[in-house]
UniProtKB/TrEMBL annotation:
Belongs to the trehalose phosphatase family. This is Trehalose 6-phosphate phosphatase. The gene is otsB. Pathway: Glycan biosynthesis; trehalose biosynthesis. Its cofactor is Mg(2+). Pfam families: Trehalose_PPase. The keyword Magnesium applies. It comes from the Bacteria. SUPFAM superfamilies: HAD-like.
Length: 257
């Protein structure tokens, strides 16, 4: 519903932005909506958060999307509410809740790469591999010494595959290295969603904490919107959740009946 008078309040650390009207809100998950945890399966979602997001989405006529590196199955587990989602760093889109996800035609990482990464996990207890639809992540939060070794191994695998890494790139995440297919990113996800209702015609506001969010922020800015780094505009995830809670009364006032 472009043209609505509903406005998000200014972020606490960026008051100069003033109220943000006609927003389409794009939110990262890990490190942004929830605090970083020792392992991917250990994140704690505040009990009221899913419903809060659903209420804000309703106030924005559906123009709220989670844009995450996580697969949709994780997002559905942690946020079991009908809101738009983009998972796997933009490789999987579900713009309409309840509809089947959409995936561009992307390559799948060779099984041999995953096997080589598994040898690393044997050498460095505490490391773990997280499988994604197209690639995988080597996490080393619980074994920091493994970080440079994992990077060297994954760099080598991609280099052996040719100049464009066999269609893959190595993404630096928080205490993790992710083998991800080229051609999808949080930027492509935001661009795709901004071409569709109910996002089209609104002002994109992307909020994230990590280097993996920068492409999403850049596309939001290209569309005349805001790319907000959590640490700069809000501080910690808790401050973002407090801000989201403050969005709700206005959202419900302005939501269509
Ligand atoms: O795009 P995001 O929603 O921020 O997801 C990025 C990656 O987040 C997860 O890993 C990170 O969070 C874990 C839980 O706090 C933490 O243990 C790990 O060290 C972080 O790298 C997730 O596991 C990945 O799949 C996401 O791509």
């Amino acid at each position: 519903m472009a043209g609505t008078s509903f406005a998000l309040p200014p972020p606490p650390r960026s008051p100069d932005l003033g109220p943000i009207s006609d927003a389409a809100l794009f939110l990262d998950f890990d490190g942004t909506l929830v605090e970083i945890a020792p392992r991917p399966d250990a994140v704690q979602v505040q009990p009221g958060l899913p419903r809060l997001l659903q209420r804000i989405a309703a106030g924005l006529n559906g123009a709220l999307a989670i844009v995450s590196g996580r697969p949709l199955r994780d997002l559905d587990h942690f946020l079991p509410v009908p809101i738009a989602m983009a998972g796997d760093h933009g490789a999987t889109l579900r713009p309409v809740p309840g509809q089947p996800p959409e995936s561009p035609d992307l390559p799948h990482a060779p099984a041999a790469w995953r096997d080589r990464a598994a040898t690393l996990v044997e050498r460095f207890p505490g490391t773990l591999i997280e499988d994604k639809e197209h690639g995988f992540v080597v996490h080393y939060r619980l074994a920091p010494a493994a970080g440079p070794v994992a990077k060297a191994l994954l760099d080598e695998l991609l280099a052996e595959a040719g100049p464009n890494g066999g269609g893959f790139t190595l993404l630096e995440a928080r205490m993790a290295w992710e083998v991800r297919p080229r051609g999808a990113s949080k930027g492509t996800a935001v661009r795709d969603l901004m071409a569709r209702a109910p996002f089209a015609g609104r002002r994109p506001v992307f909020i994230g904490d990590d280097v993996t969010d920068e492409e999403g922020m850049a596309v939001a800015r290209e569309h005349g919107g805001l790319g907000l780094r959590l640490q700069d505009a809000f501080g910690e995830p808790e401050a973002l959740r407090e801000w989201l809670a403050r969005c709700v009364p206005a959202a419900e006032t302005e939501a269509p009946a």
